[in-house]
Amino acid sequence: MRRASRHAQSGSNMAYSHCLEPDWLPHVDAIIDVVSDGNCGYRCIASGLGLADVDGWRIVRRRMYDEIIGYEYLWREVLGSSFEPVKNAVHCPEKQEGASFKEWLTLPNMGLLVSTAFNVVLVNLSHGSASTFLPLRSTPTSSLHNRLIIAMANERNIHWVRVRLRVNAPLPSLYPSWDRYVEDYAKGWRDGFVFRDIAPIATADHEATIPVVDLDTP
């Protein structure tokens, strides 16, 4: 996975805005870049959780691995033939640094795993594949303000960036499989959020106002 471009590292407002669904640009507060070492997807999750950028990605991968192993019966049903590839992808040996192509975080197949492992609302704003993932088996807090939303977007299938949404921003459509596998006591996660389908809107005035926060290090 490539390093972030010099254009992105300079903090340009336009960097990475092209990889988001245009409909959501007015609702974006900032785009947060991370180190491009193959673990960028996990680093975005770690950033959203407030974990240290140095090794937060390890915690994310290990927690995802614990989740998929601890509830294997569930994830075999949810993931089907993708179970073994996903399990192998999130497995993180003690001294591992980078990640091979087969170990990258991928959406949508890891979306429900992330949201369930960390009890967060995961939002994929990637152009052409925007969707929202909710936890499958936890009771949500009654206040929307206490529900952590982690949004991210993918650039050309080679690099993930974290997206910080504005307060009360709408969310893209709920990932269809959630309704099929969610426990009854977890269905309240859907309450209070505004989901909407992608619809073209004018975005020219918003593209130049999105700052890029660079967490990438040389």
UniProtKB/TrEMBL annotation:
<protein>
    <recommendedName>
        <fullName>OTU domain-containing protein</fullName>
    </recommendedName>
</protein>
